[in-house]
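With this grant's support, the team has encoded backbone shapes as discrete tokens. A representative record is reproduced below.
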Amino acid sequence: MIDYAAREYSDGKIYSILTPEIGEWFRDKFGTFTPPQRYAVMEIHRKKNVLISSPTGSGKTFAAFMAAINELLLMAKEGKLEDRIYVLYISPLKALNNDIERNLNTPLREIYSRFDIKEKIRVAVRTGDTTQQERQRQLRKAPHILITTPESLAILLNAPRFSRKLEKVRWIIVDEIHSMADNKRGLHLSLSLERLVARMEDEPVRIGLSATIHPMKEIAKFLVGMNRECLIVDVNFIKKIDLKVISPVEDLIYTPADEQTEKLYTLLHDLIKRHRTTLIFTNTRSATERVVFNLKKRFPEMEEKVEAHHGSLSRDVRLEVEERLKRGDLKCVVSSTSLELGIDIGYIDLV
């Protein structure tokens, strides 16, 4: 049965289920829980499948991980963490996976620096970018939280030795679920999840995340499959945005191409200068490189302030661009689709 979550839990109720370590860290860091956390954390703690729909930056990702990390910390304190994967996080983008790894390791480092906990919770990313050395390390010592993509999961299920480490997964988190629900990637993911669950003695908790979901009940069915229950946490609200359609020239049909190009880059340069950080999307990877090249060539002061981000770049280059963007070192990043889904990319005031 698919139903909507109706109960919003108090901060006190949620703190009561958390370990002292994570509770104290969260209280010092954030103080209070966000709406998606108030609706979802207790339900996930009670082993219910949950689909969370709320805006980017509202805390839904931490809502998905909180119950799992809480239980992992309990086991870590008692020295009972096994050499296997407990949490499987799946997202459609490598950049989002790298972002999640950073956002998990940061609070874990802060918690471990403040408290004496016997065992470390290991977090790792497994995608096509993962080096052979790292893959062997994961095989020898499995991460407790594995972050991957639908395609990499399908490959892992066919790896006899590694797939055994997935057989007791307790939480499965599918991020940006709306982007996969209506296409072949989503179909592939559904088959992989059913293959995985078929090997298990106990059903894992399934958690879906998205800022944009419609129709919600159909997406919930996609998340949990046949004959399973799911609670929908719908705490969407509309953010204020300033939306404009701007043309570099008055007549796009009869204006010469050279003049259009010149005015386009003049306009882009002016917009970039007037804003703190700008994100530009293009239709193709080649268009991304072309925009970056022209901005740097026409405006030399932009040489160290504008970079490209797309799937054809190496993992190290993409990670460096993401880090520089989050630190505020870049005025502008031009991307195809590799930065479009729910990534924590710091302060952006113009898209």
Remarks:
- The mean pLDDT is 90.
- The first strand starts at residue 2 and ends at 4.
- The chain has 13 helices and eleven strands.
- The longest helix spans residues 94-114.
